[in-house]
Each structure stands twice: as C-alpha cells, then as structure tokens.
Design goal:
Helix content of chain B: over 70%
CATH topology of the largest domain in chain B: MetI-like fold
Largest sheet of chain B: none
Distance between the termini of chain A: 45 Å
Number of helices of chain B: 12
Structural class of chain B: mainly alpha
CATH superfamily of one domain in chain A: P-loop containing nucleotide triphosphate hydrolases
Radius of gyration of chain B: 27 Å
Strand content of chain A: 5-15%
Helix content of chain A: 25-40%
Oligomer: heterodimer
Number of strands of chain B: 0
Shape of chain B: flat
Largest sheet of chain A: 6 strands, mixed
Largest interface: A-B, 30 and 23 residues
Distance between the termini of chain B: 53 Å
CATH architecture of one domain in chain A: 3-Layer(aba) Sandwich
Number of domains of chain B: 2
CATH topology of one domain in chain A: Rossmann fold
Number of strands of chain A: 8
Order of helices and strands of chain B: HHHHHHHHHHHH
C-alpha cells in the first residue's frame, strides 16, 4: 500500500506548516516518517542535512489522543522526556516552567484520568516541549476538543511557537485552523498522497477569523477540494 | 393552605427524629447481641465438657465493654468517623455474634450435632490455648515456606513474563514450556518432587515456586503484550532507550495485569502449601491438620483452620494494600 508518492517539501527553520487533506490520505504517515517512527520505502527525509533513521528527542510528536502515561501524574508526565534522557536531575525546574507555560500550574499532582481533554492535550504539548525540540510534529492535536477549547489552544500554540521559534508541522483537516495558524498550508491529494497545492498565507498575526482575506483563502482552498459548487458566487471586495 | 404546610413540616420533623433514634439504636445492636451471647453462654447448662468456658466469658466481656464504650462515646459525641463506622458495621457485627451464640446453643448447650466433628467455638478455644505452642510453630513454618516460595516464584515469573512480552526469540522457546508445564497443578508433582529433592523443605519451596511462577508469568506477559503501542511511540520520540521503554513504560503499564497474576499466584500457593504439608512435609499447618485428624481431635483442626484464615487473609490484605499504593492512578479500584 503506497501512502505517500513523490512528496517533495522544504520546510524552513521556524516555519509553521500545516498539512491538510482528506482523512486517511497519508498526512499522518508523513508526520510519522519525519518523527522517525516509520521508515520510508523510497527517498529520504533530512533535518539540517542529516537523514532521519529513527526517533530523536529533537523531533517531538503530539497525537490527537494526548496519550499521557496514566500511571504518572502530570508533573512526571511532562518530565518524561528529561527522565528518559537521564538529565532530569539538573533540569527539573524546566518541567515546572513548561507546566506553567501551558497554563497547568497547580495541577502537577493530578493523574491523567482526572484531567479534561483540553488539559490533557496541554500537558502532552508541555511534555513534547520540555525537550526543546527543533521540530514539533502535531498530528491533529486539537481534533478531539470542543470549539472553544480548540480556539483557545490555537492561540496558545501560536504564542508558544512565537516565543520559542520551533519549527512546527501541523496535521489537520480543519481548513480554518490551517489558515489561522500557518505560514504555509500544504494541500494533499487522496491516497497515495501527493502535494497538490501549497498556499502561502500572507496575513499578519493575530489573524481575524472573520476578515475578508481570511475568507478568500478559505474559499480558494475549499475550491481545490471541490467543496464549493462550481460556478458558485465568490465573495467580492 | 397554611395548615397543610404545617402538617407536612411536622411530619418531616418527626421522621427526622425517628431516624436519629433508629440509628442510635442500631449502634447499640452489637452491645446487645454480645450481651445475649454472654447471657446464653453463662446461664444455659452445658451438655458437653469444655475447659475454656471462663476464657470465653472473658473474651465476650471484653467485646461487651468495647462495643458499649464505643456506643457511649458515640452518644456523647455523635458524627465522628469512628462513630459512623460503628453504625455501618453494626448489623454485620451483631449478626456474627448472634450466629456464634446460635452455634454454641446447637453444639455445646444442646448437643444437636455429633461429636467430635462439630465442636463449639469454646472447644476450639480449648485447642488454641492448649496447643498454642504447636500451632504457632506450625504457623511459623508454613509462613516461612510460603514467603520464600512465593517470593522466588514471583521474581522468576516477573522475569519470564517480561522477557516473553518483550523478546520474540525468548517467547518462541519459552511458550511451549509454559503451555505444557504451566497448567499442571503443582500439587501433582508432589510424589516426584518429594523423592527427587534432598529435603522436604527444598521440595516444598520448589512446589511453591512452580505454583506462583505460572500465573505471574502469564499475567505479566499478557500485561506487557497489551500495552497501548502509542505509549512506546511517544516515549521513543521523547528520547527513550529500550531500557526506559521496559522499566518505565511496559512494566508500569502492565501493573494492573501483574497484580492479577500475583493474586492468582497467592491462591495457588496457599493450596500447594497446605497439600504439600499434608502429604509429605513434617511441619506446618497442613501437617498439623492431618496430625490432629489422626488423633480424632477435630477441635484442633478447627483451631488450625482459624489460624490459617488469619494468616492467609492477612497476606491477601497486605497484597491489596500494596496494589492500592502502586495503582493509585487507576480509577474504580475495589476496596478490600
């Protein structure tokens, strides 16, 4: 089964990139390849000129499901990366700093089953960030959240990204989310996924979700998915 | 309308007072049932001869005073945790003492059941007191065997289970051994093992190891094999090496299953221990039971069963406590 075909993409340092496409098109596969969880059958992926052969703590991954370790409390969950690398002792104050950064101060002792979906996802984000990843891979991280929590977390994600200058590759199937967040939106075709279009979102941040230019990007991207009826009226200035 | 409202209010108020009185009365129930037991014990004439009547009276009197004091303190300062607990346990405690009084009536007082198979609890107390030395020695022997055997079996089971859950090649070779030898009840090995091993002590250790090894291995293996793969993937992207994946991901994730194995292991260990002692080992509670039975002293058998209940229930309780500590992160644990 070919999931990806002829995907050529160059991601700039510090860039926020979104991959959108129909579900099951292979967006997640691409993300797993970058993470090093899967191996490409043909071709290579390189970060800073180095070909990816396996996972590395400089490439953090957050799934749609927070997958917090249920046997660890929030603090220990966020500390996992440092613990796994054996450097927790010298850097334990960073764990608290990242918990504060994602707004979960005061919940350090809570176990995952006691956290709401949004809180758990923030914790998962903090857990990935604590390793200071050069690349942050986000696989529909906000997909399971309600609309309010979602918009809230989108803003926080932007704040963290601007703050830390991490390169972010963001998989989503929400067009609005992609336009709101990204420097570039990569539109993928159905399986086997190829890059269909690349949209550079040339809007200053913070972006207004209800502005004319925002709508224009939206309708153009929707058109490329054939989600708007042909000959339907376009918004004019 | 006003009248109607008043009536409703009054009813509620009276119901409330009645409830408080009923609860108070409920807390007196243990005292009353112990008093009844003591009364029957002292004033109904015996049909069977026992030595420990006085001791039994003292025991009941201690209970009587104890429950009365708890009731009295609760009356003065109601609503404390200690007091609420008494209310919760009152029906159970009362039932236990009433049943015990009934048993004494049927056996010692009225001699309805044939002796020596159905001794009264006072007669069993005879056994506990007269043979206290032998019983405690036996309990210590059983306990020692159990602890050493179970601990060894558990450690081996954990190692085998983890290796089987993690290492493809180990699983390939260990699986048939586990499948063929595991299901044989370890008691079935007794005739062979007692001959092969140099002492009955080492033989029983081996049997207990066998008894606990199998369930612990299977449940550890199952637990590790069923760990959500995403946990490993997340841990890998966080920079975890294989050692970390086993020790800090696979094993903690498998703990619920491992504890199930430990509980199964204690069960099979208890059975194996007692049967081994009955069949060949010349010490321990199992041996004591066959020995007492040989002399027709069934009240001593009951005394040994009583000690065994305390010992085994204590071990299970400890295991539950350990589980509650290790698995605090799990929702909906049953409380022991």
């Amino acid at each position: 089964m070919v999931a990806l075909d002829h995907v050529n993409l160059r991601i700039e340092p510090g860039e926020f990139i979104s991959l959108i496409g129909p579900s099951g098109c292979g967006k997640s596969t691409l993300l797993r390849l970058i993470a090093g969880l899967d191996q490409a059958t043909e071709g290579t992926i390189a970060v800073d000129g180095e070909t990816i052969t396996g996972t590395h703590h400089t490439r953090g991954l957050v799934f749609q499901d927070p997958t917090l370790f249920p046997w660890k409390n929030l603090w220990d969950n966020v500390a996992s990366g440092l613990d796994a690398r054996g450097i927790l002792k010298h850097k334990s104050e960073e764990v608290s700093a990242f918990i504060e950064l994602v707004g979960l101060k005061g919940f350090e002792k809570a176990y995952p089953h006691a956290l709401s979906g949004g809180m758990a996802q923030r914790a998962a984000l903090a857990r990935a960030l604590v390793n200071h990843p050069k690349v942050l891979l986000l696989d529909e991280p906000l997909g399971a959240l309600d609309a309010f929590t979602r918009m809230n977390l989108q803003d926080e994600l932007l704040r963290i990204w601007q703050d830390r200058g991490t390169t972010i590759v963001f998989v989503t199937h929400d067009i609005d989310e992609a336009i709101y967040l990204s420097d570039r939106v990569i539109v993928m075709t159905p399986r086997p996924a190829q890059i269909k279009e690349i949209w550079t979102i040339d809007l200053p941040r913070p972006r207004a979700r209800n502005s004319q230019p925002f709508f224009r990007y939206r309708s153009q991207i929707m058109e490329s998915f054939q989600l708007v009826p042909q000959g339907g009226k376009e918004l004019s200035n | 309308m006003d009248n109607a409202k008043n009536i409703v209010l009054n009813k509620r108020l009276r119901a409330g007072i009645f409830n408080a009185e009923a609860i108070r009365l409920k807390k007196l129930l243990p005292t009353l049932s112990v008093a009844l037991s003591l009364f029957l014990h002292l004033f109904v004439p015996d049909q069977q001869k026992v030595a420990s009547n006085q001791v039994y009276s003292i025991v009941l009197t201690i209970f009587l005073v104890y429950y009365f004091i708890r009731f009295a303190i609760g009356s003065v300062r109601p609503g404390t945790r200690w007091d609420n607990k008494l209310g919760e346990q009152a029906p159970l405690i009362s039932a236990v003492f009433l049943l015990s009084a009934l048993w004494e009536l049927c056996t010692q007082k009225l001699a309805l059941f044939p002796m020596p198979y159905f001794p009264s609890q006072v007669k069993v107390l005879d056994g506990l007191i007269n043979d206290f030395f032998n019983l405690s020695i036996s309990a210590v022997y059983s306990f020692r065997l159990l602890v050493i055997g179970f601990a060894l079996g558990t450690v081996l089971g954990l190692i085998t289970g983890i290796l089987m859950g993690w290492n493809q090649r180990f699983r390939y070779w260990a699986n048939p051994v586990l499948r063929i030898l595991g299901p044989i009840p370890s008691t079935a090995w007794i005739p062979i093992v007692l001959v092969i091993f140099p002492t009955s002590f080492t033989a029983s250790i081996f049997l207990l190891v066998l008894a606990s090894w199998f369930p612990v291995t299977v449940m550890t293996w199952t637990g590790i094999a069923n760990v959500n793969k995403s946990y490993f993937e997340v841990a890998k992207t966080l920079g975890a090496n294989e050692k970390y994946l086993i020790a800090k991901v696979a094993i903690p994730a498998a703990f619920p299953s491992i504890f199930t194995g430990l509980f199964m292991g204690t069960g099979t260990s208890f059975v194996t221990l007692i049967v081994a002692e009955m069949l060949g080992v010349k010490a321990g509670l199992g041996f004591y039971i066959t020995w007492a039975q040989g002399w027709g002293e069934y009240y001593k058998v009951y005394a040994a069963l009583f000690i065994m209940a305390l010992l085994f229930s204590g071990i299970i309780t400890l295991l539950f406590k350990a589980r509650d500590k290790v698995l605090v992160w799990q929702k909906g644990l049953i409380k022991w």
